[in-house]
Design a protein that fits this description.
Elements (H helix, E strand, L loop, with lengths): L9 H10 L7 H14 L13 H14 L4 H8 L3 E7 L7 E6 L7 E7 H6 L9 E3 L2 E3 L2 H22 L7 H11 L11 H7 L7 E6 L2 E10 L3 E6 L6 E2 L5 E7 L5 E2 L6
Parallel strand pairs: 1-3
Antiparallel strand pairs: 2-3, 4-5, 6-7, 6-11, 7-8, 8-10, 9-10
Helix pairs in contact: 1-4, 6-7
Length: about 270
């Protein structure tokens, strides 16, 4: 594949990564990589949900490894006897992706690089068509969004390989993400439950009501994952005691069932 390069040692791969500069990374360059990726799967389009399985994430990594990193990440992985797996995780309901590292910091480790198939599948639909801002860059389709998410996770992977640790809140991560991919932020606005709740004019702490067994139930949004956790005042024998001195029962409610409570609690 275009861009392939051989490294004599892990040190030469390391030097290449530290000298890599792509701060002028243009949309056209990302589109060129997307075009090369789509050549592998001519039956798919740029907004295809089929991308959201592990094999497609692995193939996308291989495109980046050849066209951006020139094989440097693979060289470091092999030199350290590490293993890396790529997957699309439907359980990631807030993070666009993550890298899980297991094993000793200075020894062989396993890295699990995951992108959120849950968030990507809920984005670029009729309800949330895009463009969607990811890492400071607007994505207009699901493939570009997956690329931007994976770029963020590849910076994490590279930091683990180079330094043994990684944090996207640190200056070093943000510098590498900018220099390699032009990222100016480390956040996303994919269709998470929190984003959808915000679109409804609600947030954690909002008073809401919903229908349950034919009755209107009132409470407060306490937490949001794929559903909202709503705390409802109840009798001591029915619920848990909270710091405010009241007892609450927890209800797990789909967002579409919630509405703002404009009435007074009885």
């Amino acid at each position: 594949m275009e861009g392939e390069r051989d490294f004599e040692s892990a040190e030469t791969a390391r030097r290449y990564l530290l000298s890599l500069r792509r701060s002028d990374h243009a949309v056209l360059e990302r589109d060129r990589m997307a075009g090369r990726y789509l050549e592998l799967f001519p039956e798919l389009d740029r907004n295809e949900r089929m991308f959201l399985v592990g094999d497609y994430v692995t193939f996308l990594f291989e495109v980046y490894e050849r066209m951006v990193f020139k094989g440097a990440l693979s060289t470091l992985i092999e030199a350290g006897n590490h293993t890396v797996a790529f997957s699309a995780n439907p359980r990631l309901s807030r993070a666009g992706g993550r890298v899980l590292a297991s094993g000793p910091r200075m020894g062989p480790r396993r890295f699990d690089v995951q992108v959120s198939s849950y968030l990507l599948a809920r984005s670029f639909t009729d309800l949330r068509p895009g463009p969607i801002k990811i890492n400071g860059i607007y994505a207009r389709d699901r493939l570009t969004a997956m690329m931007l998410v994976l770029e963020h996770e590849l910076v994490h992977l590279a930091e683990f390989l180079l330094y043994g640790r990684s944090s996207c809140s640190a200056h070093r991560f943000r510098r590498l993400a900018y220099e390699w991919f032009g990222h100016t932020e480390v956040t996303h606005s994919l269709a998470s439950a929190r984003v959808e709740l915000h679109d409804m004019g609600l947030r954690v702490g909002s008073r809401v009501c919903f229908e349950y067994k034919g009755q209107t139930v009132r409470g407060m949004v306490n937490r949001v994952t794929k559903r909202a956790t709503v705390l409802v005042r109840c009798q001591p024998s029915e619920g848990a005691l909270f710091n405010d001195g009241h007892h609450y029962c927890k209800y797990y409610v789909g967002l579409s069932s919630l509405r703002a409570d404009t009435g007074q609690e009885e």
